[in-house]
């Protein structure tokens, strides 16, 4: 049986959709880094990679050893190839400068090196989320790359994807013409195309939200979740099931597999507009979900239309099956 590896898929994309060679190289390098992260994650206690670093990231969150290891793997893999003008990571305060000894390229790489890292120590799925943007023309500016270069709406992404480290390691990818899923064949060491043209069903009976925050939600979310819980006897006239894995990668992967709705709404605790990061989580996932026929909003507007104002900006997120995302978004607008 002829198998389509990631390399073959990307070469065929170059032929059919004029994917530039440097973008192809970039994606291959990111995929290689994800293989290395997958290997580290799978070692667990045997590799001494579990537990915390004893440090905090820019968001004030405790960094796990694997957060830091994954960040370094991605930086090292991507800094030398000449395809990037800079990188930004959820784990770093500022934009990462490509060292002066290497050539610079046309793209910016943005990533959450290990999403859902509270799952690491309990042996539950985690993942890497990434997004690729074009670097704006800097008009001969040879100085450091500032954060403004990255502040582009998600609709400008040229590619987005994630790797999920679960029972299987998979890579999901969009370059704006559908979503493809590749499974890591550990014997060959290659990602192999296993899920062609992934689609999110329009209707669903499954939702994901951290219910422990209920008392902090805004009214439209309280109303909507109340209706979901009311089931067949309520206004929606059907029963809903709930799942919450606490790793966005894993919750989104389930939605891409069988549909569903993922919500991390704004809450009124500390005036933060939600928990998830626009650049590292919401934008790449929104691009993937839309390319699979789903919808992604912040309750008021399409996530991909938000103009970012800072690298580590947070946003409320509602994404997944069209019918339910549109319903909860409409409740915000009433
Ligand atoms: O970055 C954030 C993250 O770990 C997401 O992957 C996940 O969806 C969410 O936080 C879980 O949040 P909580 O711990 O509040 O359930």
From TrEMBL:
One of its GO terms (cellular component) is cytosol. GO terms for biological process: fructose 1,6-bisphosphate metabolic process; fructose 6-phosphate metabolic process; fructose metabolic process; gluconeogenesis; sucrose biosynthetic process. InterPro entries: FBPase_C_dom (IPR044015), FBPase_class-1 (IPR000146), FBPase_N (IPR033391), FBPtase (IPR028343). Mg(2+) 2 binds at residues 112, 115, 281. The keyword Magnesium applies. Its cofactor is Mg(2+). GO terms for molecular function: fructose 1,6-bisphosphate 1-phosphatase activity; magnesium ion binding. Residues 200-333 form the Fructose-1-6-bisphosphatase class 1 C-terminal domain. Substrate binds at residues 115-118, 210, 275. Residues 5-195 form the Fructose-1-6-bisphosphatase class I N-terminal domain. The keyword Transferase does not apply. Gene3D superfamilies: 3.40.190.80, Fructose-1,6-Bisphosphatase, subunit A, domain 1. CDD domains: FBPase. Its EC number is 3.1.3.11. Keywords: Carbohydrate metabolism, Cytoplasm, Hydrolase, Magnesium, Metal-binding. Belongs to the FBPase class 1 family. Homotetramer. This is Fructose-1,6-bisphosphatase class 1. It comes from Pseudomonas marincola.
């Amino acid at each position: 049986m002829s198998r389509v590896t990631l390399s073959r898929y990307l070469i065929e994309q170059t032929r059919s959709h004029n994917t530039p060679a440097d973008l192809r190289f970039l994606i291959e390098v990111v995929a290689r880094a994800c293989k290395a992260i997958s290997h580290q994650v799978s070692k667990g206690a045997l590799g001494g990679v579990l537990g915390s670093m004893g440090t905090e990231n820019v968001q004030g969150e405790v960094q796990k050893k694997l957060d830091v290891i994954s960040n370094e793997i991605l930086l090292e893999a991507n800094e030398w190839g000449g395809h990037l003008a800079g990188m930004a990571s959820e784990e770093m305060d500022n934009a990462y400068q490509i060292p002066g000894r290497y050539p610079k390229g046309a793209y910016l790489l943005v990533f959450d090196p290990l999403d859902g890292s509270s799952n690491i120590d309990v042996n539950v799925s985690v993942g890497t989320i990434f997004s690729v943007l074009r670097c704006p023309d800097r008009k001969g500016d040879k100085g450091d790359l500032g954060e403004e270069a990255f502040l582009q709406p998600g609709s400008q992404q040229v590619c987005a994807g994630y790797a999920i480290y679960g029972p299987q390691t998979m890579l999901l990818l969009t370059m704006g013409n559908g979503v493809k899923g590749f499974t890591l064949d550990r014997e060959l060491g290659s990602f192999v195309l296993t899920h062609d043209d992934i689609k999110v069903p329009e209707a669903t009976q499954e939702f994901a939200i951290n219910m422990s925050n209920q008392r902090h939600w805004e009214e439209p979310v309280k109303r909507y979740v109340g209706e979901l819980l009311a089931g067949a006897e309520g206004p929606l006239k059907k029963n809903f099931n709930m799942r919450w894995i606490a790793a966005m990668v894993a919750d989104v992967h389930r939605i891409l597999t069988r549909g569903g709705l993922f919500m991390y709404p704004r809450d009124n605790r500390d005036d933060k507009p939600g928990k998830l990061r626009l650049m590292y989580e919401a934008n790449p996932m929104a691009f993937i979900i839309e390319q699979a026929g789903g919808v992604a909003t912040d309750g008021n507007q399409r996530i991909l239309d938000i103009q970012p104002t800072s690298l580590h900006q947070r946003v409320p997120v509602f994404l997944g099956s069209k019918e339910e995302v549109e319903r909860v978004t409409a409740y915000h607008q009433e």
